[in-house]
Amino acid sequence: MLYDSTQLHQLLFEYMSTEELKIPCRSQADVSTGDEYAFGFVQQDKIRVTLRARGQRLSGNVLGGDLFLIPPGSACTFDNLSANHTAALVVIRFQCVPKKLHVLPASPLPIFAERLELIRFRIPQVRSWIQDFIGDSGDDAAHYYQLQSHLYGLAAAYMTTIQKPKQPEAELLDYVEQTRQYMVERYNNPFDMEEIARLSGVGSSRFYQAFRRHTGLSPHKYMTKIRLDMSLSLLADSSLPILDVAHSVGYPDEYYFSRLFKKHMGMSPTEYALSARRKIACLAPIFLGDLSVLGITPHLVLERGWWEAPEEGLRKVAEEAPEFIFIPPVTDDVHRALSRIAPVVMLDWKRYSWKERLLDISRALDISTVAERWLSYFEVKTENARYLVRKRLGDESVLLVNASGLGFRVFGMQMRKMKDLFYDDLQVTPPALVRNMSFLDVASVQELSELDSDHVVFLVDIADSEDRCAELEHHWRSLNRDRPKKNCFFIRTRQPLMNNAAVHESLVDQMVSHLVQYT
């Protein structure tokens, strides 16, 4: 990045306006700039940004929490590639003007290089600043000066990034993560992996090594895993012929797909479909996450507590006439009543691990090889997560906090469902004060800070607002200013927190995403 520091000293930044964009699933939005600049901020999910300026065009993925600069005279397109979530973007417009009337800005303006670039950068306090920009009413002088201060803070962070760019290893990891996400979103499209490797800016072998270190698999094997995972639900939930399933997940040759499926799953697509298409009643929501990783959606699900007044639940099960019923521990009378409807599999989920339970469910459905394959890949995934934990955090302590309600629940090493994942699988170091604790309920962030941890992971509900996360992060940091190394990681999950395969996979994936971006 080339710029003239003398020219910079002659310039002022003047805040203009803020606009907030909500981009629906699989949709796009357009923004243009005249003679002004803009900072873009992705509030949630991920968008693909395409910049067109000065006869140049550039595209790239920008993740939630990333800032980027939009130059003057630009046409900018934002694509939300997600099929499930609305993307949120904030655009902060400002002008770069001379301090003195006789000093003219350079052309192009000095904080933007002649070559078009999409430079992403982050600052810890950005979410609280963004809320100030969004709340701009335009008629409060004090608030305007606050926004001016924030604007200079954003500019300072941007200049720091371009003057001290990321190390090549960090740039490569960013590219690997973007490639991985692109593969997940476009799994049914043809992929030229050699071209993707070439665009990484490093040699192909180094890109492949980095991808394997990040995911545990080569790019080709990772794509195979994604496609076969997607094929499970298609085979289980529809009457599509094998040919259509193969085409839907990116394989034009159904015979090649069938051979590949049997090699990885231990059974043919037809055999899997015969077992997975049976009508299943799931009478404990915790089992849903286990069934989902096996590709199965139950025909009937009853909410927690139905067994306290079982008559209505028994009636619904009888009407559905399932072929299998999965239940938690219930009374003998309820068990006998359900057994008269269909074969019953009772799983005492509190007494043994979710991994053993997943295998028991798969054995009952005659698809145990599918569960064994999933667990082997999960172990690969957690091994790579452990590598990132060691590399990024070392032995720095991490406090694990469920922040879904009004208060906070701290998970210690004696809480099995969290110990299994964070302290055993990921080998995160707990603060000394929670080593012998099951859980601790506290009312305030102040009490959390007194547990003396280097970092905190907040488990928040999937529907919680970004404002609440920003407020939690701001409060946590304000109480720990003497230890600037402290960081907040937010992991979203549905509440109540379920101890099942899908939840554990999501927690690992989100933790890996944070660690890849963490410096």
Description of the molecule:
The chain has 519 residues and is α/β, with parallel strands linked by helices. The protein contains 19 helices and 18 strands. A five-stranded antiparallel beta sheet has the order 1-8-3-6-9. A five-stranded mixed beta sheet has the order 16-15-14-17-18, sandwiched between helices. A four-stranded antiparallel beta sheet has the order 2-7-4-5, with no helix packed on it. A hairpin with a 2-residue loop joins strand 4 and strand 5. The longest helix has 25 residues, at 368-392. Mean pLDDT is 87; it is low at 1-6 and 102-110.
Topology, please?
Blueprint: H1 5-9, E1 11-23, E2 28-32, E3 37-44, E4 46-53, E5 56-63, E6 67-70, E7 75-79, E8 87-98, E9 120-121, H2 126-134, H3 141-163, H4 168-185, H5 193-198, H6 204-215, H7 219-237, H8 242-248, H9 254-265, H10 269-276, E10 280-282, H11 288-293, E11 300-301, H12 311-320, E12 324-327, H13 332-339, E13 344-346, H14 354-364, H15 368-392, E14 398-402, E15 408-411, H16 416-425, E16 439-442, H17 445-449, E17 455-461, H18 466-478, E18 487-493, H19 501-517
Parallel strand pairs: 10-11, 10-12, 12-13, 14-17, 17-18
Antiparallel strand pairs: 1-8, 2-7, 3-6, 3-8, 4-5, 4-7, 6-9, 14-15, 15-16
Helix pairs in contact: 2-3, 2-18, 4-6, 7-10, 8-9, 14-15, 15-19
